[in-house]
């Protein structure tokens, strides 16, 4: 089984004990603001948010299904997804296709309040290029797979509570997949054991995200159905 650290090293070159983006590369997408555009449709929640240059075409198809096609330019990025409000302890099943090049993720993405936490359960990716240093917090394995845990901090950045300083939690699969079951409580419990405390849950979506980092540009397509 290949660890995320090894995968990242192969993609982004040498990775120290605290993961950092390559020199000169910084995150250009304020994907925290996606929560402000959350819409309730057909019994679920759908979001589509983009900024900067590029072609980002995402559409909800109904029944928990959405499609995306993207081709980014410097300074551009997007997030689209279908999910739940509130989030919390759920069994999230998803299926579909995800073909991506460049920075971005296919991930379960959400927020909690008090404390204000932005979190990701990353299922697949092409390039992971963190905007802030990632601190390893261990790993855990259960019937759905093995995930490595990380934290990071954003200082005075946009959030669902305005401009704030907040912590990010990350679960990253050691083996990519597109389709399966995400039992959120398993991740919440693993984070708690690692000292990563959550607050009360706001929203949660199974999202496709792409963003430009320096000369690295995103492109690709996805079709995802969430239940």
From TrEMBL:
Residue ranges constituting the GH11 domain according to the UniProt record: 32-222
Any one Pfam family match given in the protein's UniProt record, by short name: Glyco_hydro_11
Signal peptide annotation: 1-20
Pathway where it operates: Glycan degradation; xylan degradation
Catalytic residue list: 118, 209
Molecular function terms from GO: carbohydrate binding; endo-1,4-beta-xylanase activity
UniProt keyword Signal, yes or no: yes
Superkingdom: Eukaryota
E.C. code: 3.2.1.8
Protein keywords: Carbohydrate metabolism, Glycosidase, Hydrolase, Lectin, Polysaccharide degradation, Signal, Xylan degradation
Catalytic activities: Endohydrolysis of (1->4)-beta-D-xylosidic linkages in xylans
GO biological processes: xylan catabolic process
Keyword Hydrolase: yes
PANTHER family: ENDO-1,4-BETA-XYLANASE A-RELATED
Family: Belongs to the glycosyl hydrolase 11 (cellulase G) family.
Record-given protein name: Endo-1,4-beta-xylanase
